Automatic annotation (TrEMBL), chain A:
SUPFAM superfamilies noted in UniProt: GroEL apical domain-like, GroEL equatorial domain-like
Native species: Gambusia affinis (Western mosquitofish)
Gene3D superfamilies registered for this protein in UniProt: GroEL, GroEL-like equatorial domain, TCP-1-like chaperonin intermediate domain
Pfam family name, one: Cpn60_TCP1
Name assigned to this protein: Bardet-Biedl syndrome 10 protein
Top-level taxonomic group: Eukaryota
UniProtKB/TrEMBL annotation, chain B:
PANTHER family found in the cross-reference section: MOLECULAR CHAPERONE MKKS, SYNDROMES PUTATIVE CHAPERONIN-RELATED
Matching SUPFAM superfamilies: GroEL apical domain-like, GroEL equatorial domain-like
Gene Ontology cellular component list: cytoplasm; kinociliary basal body; nucleus
InterPro entries assigned: Cpn60/GroEL/TCP-1 (IPR002423), GroEL-like_apical_dom_sf (IPR027409), GROEL-like_equatorial_sf (IPR027413), MKKS (IPR028790), TCP-1-like_intermed_sf (IPR027410)
Name this polypeptide is given: McKusick-Kaufman syndrome
Lineage: Eukaryota, Metazoa, Chordata, Craniata, Vertebrata
């Protein structure tokens, strides 16, 4: 205990000096007889170090390793530190025109890759690597933006498309269009709502007011409008039967094709659609919700795919089992059945001295003098051998380690005929444990049968320039009811392979969103029920949502996986619906103005799609409009008819065609209504946030972090508002 | 809090998280970046550094506040592949570049990276093991910070750093293929690569503006790596081709010239881009389907019963690189050696899965090419004056993978405080000598260590008649293990198990000029061999080494698909004639599927065929004319000083040497119009042996890569 006291004293002193020095390990070489002398040290050591650590935390406070932010914020440091000298810049008022300018600039960037005629955008990174993308999210996040508002918009886009996996370009387009119309309205009638001192301020107030009304309108009325006016023209996609190679899944496949078309261009959309379906069918959990397997794939996709560059795209394929993205550290395994594998989290050879430890070698008795340091290291070697021996007794022949192991461990494993893979990534390990059902070993001395997985094979696999470990699980089909397989994505260049992988990941997200239920709720009780927001924030409060759904159960029509023909159909239909809604006598003047505004803004999306040819735009519009006079009565019978147990997609399709619908499914592909609905809501939320901004405060530091600080300030405030 | 900190650290980067940079690389290094107040600079510099050294993974592990308030340590984990080129490049900066020792003002960028301490590999450690490198802006700063001893290893490629520029705003090019500037650059690149194509290629000298080494080459992998590109589209193409070459070793120039002419022809025919992309893709599938057919007119089945066709294949690869400067007998010798080395690496007794062995190449400068040789077994460097006493075969050997220099590297990162009177060194040495005694007792005659052996132990073993070889290096470990059957030992304190010992049949000493090598003869059948390559000077030797590796890879590819394509431009003209015939004859079928009119389809197909013919014509560099015969569609060249009548001379042969000239044959100049025809198969009873063959796998993949890359480039609408 006295020693402990000393140690803590020591660390305190060192701390004051500013040198980071912590726990010490004292090895009394001479006083105890070998080899037992090491044992007491190890019994005591952890205790000591823990005490020291606690003490240190108490005294040193914020100088902890990961606390740079704290470190910077502390006033004492800020004074002494040149790096934290902050000076205030003049305030910058934000005007409506600034906001419009910024968003228009972003719009012009994404326009080139928008629509079926759009192309790829090629970026050069600071590193000289090239990045290739057609995804709006990646394009926007790759931009080096200075303006805080632009960054804020990009953040909103990023958030939206991380959830839905789609719609980032339409997001910016719609936002710009809305801003343009609001700007026009505000400059025309600045004193619409209340008198203001300056014109600019009046404009801003009008715009803010309009945006608020828009959001309110969308949160309350939009879902119903969509359910009534858009859904009847759509089809249902279900995952139940996508595996069947029949026409049932035609709409599902078309949805995928059109998604891959927007991401990867014409050339590969069919190829990747097939690959995607194959992957999905392999991972389909029998007797379970189909969305469950998509969720699983979405979360473990980084470990599930391997990118190979320098090989034609057509070589992309599925391979059974799992690929561990590392090579064997020892030489190739001998084939020995059954293969047993374990996963290690830590070092197999105990790390005696960590960075802050000090090993003290003291002069002791003459008897043991010559054995000090050598014994210390031989102890570690023997412990490795005992671990390997334990593993051998279990018949383990494959070791997967998260960390790099010492060469003694490698040699011991080789001699025991085991094969060892080191530095296995976290994702790979988590997928392995999920599929094999074992838990990783953190304490090497305690190995139990539940740590041991059985494999059917484990062999090296050469993919491109790298050699990986390829393995398959023994009883996965019985246990998890899936056939695990991995995806190999090939492309001539890294940028392209990466792009394909991103498209896959986004396809999972898109499907998850598409399969989320859209629900129709009754208008009357909603006005009184406080939980009305549940429709807008699906993800956040599911419990709330279900409560809402139960209450309104009888009037709800829950649709999952509803899709509609792409090419602006959704926008045309919603435009029409909003237009009619605005003209109906039951709504107030304000609401009608707002719905008109949204209706006009929506039209800008198809306008851009057909921007190369105005004739096509008019054709498309008249084609969609031709559907409307036929009152949804007949169409909804179609819908009800197709809500039967199986084969929704195709039946729907047939009935649509029989119903003399002129919507050509394959012309433009399909898109998800639920994604579109969420998109409109997200855009309106972003718009409200943008227009609530009043001022930019630029705080300068020598570190050039001005834009960052202001961005943080803005985003924080916007998040606060989100929560309100 | 934790999410916010990376943003703070990388204000200048495109993305707050750097996961985009991540690519799996096998070897790990840790790099410490010393951050100065201009954080984003250093980070940008760090990234640039990474790129040149092929670092693929940056991951901020932890940040440590340093002694000086405005300095911060950021520990990053980097994975970087240290191959020979990179380690060669790790040179200290030249003295005259050492200026600006103080921190430059924020608008000024240091011209060179000499202000960064350079990194040198840790002495005695092979490049593969975990090392730590340090990087700071001021040498003095890190000296003051007292880095721990294992961090004292420093390194840097100063070349990288001279390329650092402050982050400039993105430059946008809208519709890049419509701008004449980009088109000119692409054309320039095409001409550059075209002139390096084929056996009569013009060589290229590449040297940079800061006095780097001069490279002479006509090989695509070296050339493309050496040139820096000014436009993202060019780097996109470059990246694709380099990736292809690293996978298949051959046909890099073929792919790049084809890709660039496809892009150029697409611009010339003035069709909509999406139409062109679709038609190109369709025609590619026609080509690959035709080449995969059994009776394809330009495919030759390889006969493994005789080495003749293998030698022809190797010879075509070697002769296509004129930088090697080989005379006819030298060319034949090297081709034979390449095939011999390949055959030696094919194992004789196959258990369940074929694992090819390795060829270790040893370049020796200053000798005639004809002295090059291939040996079964391994040749290792030895110390001077080695004496081989009477050794009875087989020899028992032991192989250590841990260092035997007396250090205890596995103890951890902590400090060791030694009190007065404790002699750890002698304790460890005693332990090492114990090991030596055990080895002697077990009658080991050959003692090999991957790392360094303590001189005392070396002396002790030598005195007892053991051959000691140290500093073997990680790259030779695997072949040696395969050759001897030994298991590497890494424990010093336990007795070496019997099973860990390996065997060699015999040991002999070989002299190559000034170099002495010890030759380990295999005890049984082995798949490991050593190739000694000799040439007169360094440039030629480097190229020869590269070419032999390519040839070996191409030969290995034949094991998967035992066929080859006719060389000398004949495959290209054959394919062009085939595509032209197919497209003219069933134009009505594909055009509605592809969503274009028949005229558009024909125009795009013509562009495709012309690009293929460009490849054949670019084989000729001496103002000769390229022709195609109108029966078999093979490629013929007509030297500039000969008239066309000369072709009818019966001795003339086509590019690949399969078709012989005769009186009633008709020719047409390439890139002129000729009536489409279906190439006739060769029907002669005893066809001539082709004299030029190309790798089938590499060429088919190159064709696909070229079309896919061209399609990608055509689809780019905005660059930044």
């Amino acid at each position: 205990m006295e020693q402990l006291q000393e140690l803590t004293e020591f660390s305190r002193v060192r701390k004051v000096e500013g040198v980071r020095e912590a726990k010490r390990k004292v090895l009394m070489c001479g006083s105890v007889h070998c080899p037992a002398y090491i044992a007491p040290v190890f019994r005591h050591q952890p205790k000591q170090s823990r005490c020291v650590k606690l003490d240190q935390e108490a005294t040193t406070g914020r100088v902890g390793q990961d606390r740079v932010e704290d470190y910077m914020k502390s006033p004492g440091l800020a004074q002494s530190n040149t790096f934290q000298r902050v000076k205030m810049e003049p305030l910058e008022q934000l005007h409506l025109s600034h906001v419009l300018q910024t968003v228009s600039a972003l719009e012009s960037v994404i326009l080139r890759s928008f629509g079926p005629e759009g192309g790829q955008v090629l970026f050069t990174r600071d590193t000289g690597q090239v990045m290739l993308s057609r995804s709006g999210k990646r394009i926007l996040t790759a931009l080096h933006l200075d303006h805080p508002l632009a960054r804020m918009v990009v953040r909103c886009v990023w958030k939206h498309s991380t959830i839905t996996g789609d719609g980032s370009k339409t997001f910016v387009l719609l936002l710009a269009s809305l801003l343009r119309i609001i700007h026009a309205t505000a400059t025309k009638e600045p004193h619409m709502f209340q008198p203001h001192t300056s014109t600019k301020a009046a404009e801003a107030a009008t715009a803010r007011h309009l945006a608020d009304r828009l959001l309110e309108f969308a949160l309350t009325e939009l879902d119903e409008l969509i359910v009534l006016n858009v859904l009847p023209h759509g089809f249902c996609v279900s995952l139940e039967n996508f595996t069947a190679k029949t026409q049932h899944n035609l709409s599902f496949q078309t949805l995928l094709v059109s998604f891959f078309h927007t991401r990867l261009g014409y050339a590969y959309c069919d190829f990747f659609r097939n690959l995607f379906c194959e992957l999905l069918s392999h991972w389909k959990v029998k007797d379970d919700q189909p969305s469950f397997s998509i969720q699983l794939l979405n979360s473990s996709f980084p470990a599930l795919h391997t990118q190979v560059s320098g090989v034609p795209v057509s070589c992309s394929r599925l391979i059974e089992g799992q690929v561990i993205h590392r090579d064997f550290a020892t030489l190739c395994p001998q084939v020995r059945k059954p293969l047993k594998a374990v996963v290690f989290n830590g070092y197999l050879q105990p790390k005696l001295l960590t960075t802050r430890d000090v090993l003290e070698l003291r002069c002791g008795d003459k008897v043991t003098e010559d054995r000090g340091i050598v014994h210390f290291s031989s102890w570690t070697e023997r412990s490795v051998e005992s671990i390997i021996a334990t593993l051998q007794s279990f018949g383990v022949s494959v070791l997967l380690c998260a960390l790099k192991q010492s060469s003694a461990v490698l040699a011991a494993a080789t001699q025991a005929g085991m094969c060892l893979v080191e530095c296995v990534s976290e994702e790979d390990i988590s997928l392995f444990t999920q599929l094999s059902g074992v838990t990783p070993i953190s304490d090497c001395r305690r190995i139990h049968p539940e740590h041991i997985a059985t494999l059917t094979f484990c062999k090296p696999l050469l993919l491109g320039a790298h050699r990986y470990v390829h393995l398959d699980f023994h009883d996965c089909e019985e246990r998890l009811k899936v056939k695990p397989c991995s995806l190999v994505i090939c492309a001539p260049s890294e940028g392209q392979a990466d792009q394909h992988a991103c498209a896959f990941q986004d396809a999972f997200r898109m499907l998850l969103t598409a399969l989320e239920p859209m629900h129709k709720t009754q208008t009357a009780p909603k006005k009184t029920i406080p939980s009305e927001k549940c429709t807008s924030s699906h993800a956040e409060n599911i419990s709330n949502e279900t409560a809402c759904r139960v209450r309104l159960h009888q009037k709800c029509v829950i649709e999952t996986g509803c899709v509609i023909s792409a090419g602006g159909t959704f926008e045309f239909l919603l435009h029409r619906a909003l237009h009619q809604y605005g003209h109906s006598c039951s709504v107030s003047v304000n609401t009608s103005a707002v719905s008109q505004l949204l209706a006009n803004a929506l039209l800008s999306v198809p306008q851009q799609i057909y921007s190369h040819n105005l004739k096509h735009f008019l054709q498309a519009q008249s084609r969609v409009m031709a559907l409307i006079p036929k009152q949804p009565n007949t169409l909804s019978t179609n819908l009800i008819h197709t809500e039967g147990p199986l084969g929704n997609g195709k039946l729907n399709l047939c009935s649509c065609k029989k119903g003399n619908m002129t919507l050509k499914l394959l012309d433009w592909g399909l898109e998800s209504v639920s994604c579109k609905y969420q998109l409109v809501l997200a855009v309106l939320q972003c718009l409200t946030n943008l227009l609530r901004m009043h001022m930019v405060l630029r705080t300068h530091t020598i570190l050039h972090t001005k834009s960052h600080n202001s961005l943080n300030a803005h985003s924080e405030s916007s998040e606060d508002e989100d929560e309100d | 809090m934790h999410e916010a900190s990376p943003k703070f650290l990388f204000p200048g980067l495109l993305k707050p998280n750097m996961s985009d940079l991540e690519v799996q690389e096998p070897k790990c290094l840790n790099l410490f970046i010393l951050l100065n107040p201009l954080v984003h600079w250093v980070t940008n510099k760090g990234c640039n550094l990474l790129q040149t050294a092929d670092v693929c993974h940056v991951n901020i592990v932890q940040k440590l506040p340093a002694a000086e308030n405005n300095w911060m340590w950021v520990s990053c984990e980097l994975r970087l592949s240290l191959d020979e080129e990179v380690t060669d490049g790790l040179r200290p900066p030249t003295p005259q570049t050492e200026e600006q020792p103080s921190l430059p003002p924020k608008t000024q960028i240091p011209r060179t990276l000499s202000t960064f301490p350079y990194l040198t590999p840790r002495p005695g450690s092979p490049s593969s093991c975990m090392s730590r490198f340090e990087l700071g802006t001021r040498p003095k700063i890190w000296e003051q910070l007292h880095p721990p001893p294992h961090l004292a290893a420093l390194c840097h490629c100063y070349r990288t750093m001279s390329r650092l520029v402050k982050k400039s705003p993105s430059v946008c090019t809208d519709l890049p293929l419509n701008s004449s500037d980009v088109c000119n650059k692409l054309r320039l690149m095409k001409e550059l690569l075209k002139s390096s194509y084929g056996p009569t290629a013009r060589l290229k000298h590449v040297h940079n503006n800061i006095g780097g080494a001069v490279v002479t080459t006509s090989t695509s992998s070296v050339l493309l790596q050496a040139i820096s590109c000014s436009h993202p589209i060019i780097s996109l193409i470059k990246g694709s081709i380099l990736n292809h070459v690293s996978r298949f070793s051959d046909c890099g120039l073929f792919a790049s010239v084809f890709c660039l002419s496809l892009i150029e022809e697409a611009g010339r025919c003035g069709l909509r881009k999406d139409v062109i992309i679709r038609v190109y893709k369709h025609l590619l599938s026609l080509c690959t389907a035709h080449l995969q057919q059994e009776d394809c007119g330009c495919k030759v089945k390889l006969d493994f019963c005789s080495s003749q066709s293998l030698i022809t294949l190797a010879r075509s690869v070697i002769s296509s690189k004129p930088t090697c400067v080989l005379s006819e007998p030298e060319l034949a010798h090297i081709s034979r050696l390449a095939v011999l080395a390949f055959l030696l690496t094919v194992p004789c007794n196959i258990v369940d899965k074929v694992r090819l062995g390795r060829t270790v190449t040893i370049p020796i400068e200053g000798h005639s090419v004809l002295e090059s040789a291939v040996f079964s077994g391994l040749l290792l460097d030895t110390p001077e004056n080695i004496s081989l006493g009477s050794l009875c075969s087989p020899l028992r050997m032991v192989l250590f993978s841990a260092s035997l220099a007396g250090d205890l590297s596995e103890l951890g990162d902590g400090r060791i405080e030694v009190h007065q009177g404790v002699d750890t060194d002698s304790q460890i040495l005693d332990q090492l000598l114990e090991l030596g005694k055990q080895v002697l007792k077990d009658e080991v005659k050959l003692f090999v260590c991957q790392k360094v052996i303590h001189p005392v132990l070396q002396h002790y073993l030598r005195c007892n008649g053991v051959i000691v070889i140290e500093r073997l290096g990680i790259s030779l470990m695997e072949p040696l293990i395969q050759l001897t059957g030994a298991q590497p030992v890494a424990t010093l304190h336990t007795t070496i198990p019997r099973t860990a010992y390996g065997e060699v049949h015999n040991v002999s000493v070989r002299q190559f000029g000034s170099k002495t090598k010890i030759h380990l003869h295999p005890a049984g059948k082995t798949a490991t061999c050593t190739m000694i390559l000799c040439h007169r000077n360094e440039t030629m030797l480097n190229e020869l080494k590269l070419v032999c590796q390519k040839a070996e890879h191409v030969l290995r590819l034949t094991l998967r698909e035992p066929c080859a394509l006719l060389g000398g431009g004949c495959t290209e003209t054959h394919l062009a004639a085939y595509i032209r015939y197919q497209s003219k004859n069933d134009v009505s079928e594909p055009s509605p599927v592809l969503g274009c009119s028949q005229t558009e389809y024909l125009l795009a197909a013509e562009a495709f065929c012309r690009s293929l013919e460009t490849l054949a014509t670019s084989l000729e560099h001496d103002d000769g004319a390229s022709l195609i015969d109108l029966t078999h569609a093979h490629h013929w060249t007509l030297p500039s000083d000969v008239t066309e009548e000369h072709l009818k001379d019966a001795t003339a042969l086509c590019g690949c040497g399969v078709v012989q000239s005769c009186q009633n044959r008709k020719w047409s100049y390439l890139n002129t119009e000729y009536a489409e025809f279906s190439p006739a198969p060769l029907l002669t009873a005893a066809p001539l042996q082709p004299t030029v063959l190309d790798s089938f796998t590499a060429k088919v993949k190159a064709l696909e890569v070229a079309v896919e890359t061209a399609n990608l480039v055509l689809d780019v609408s905005l660059t930044m």
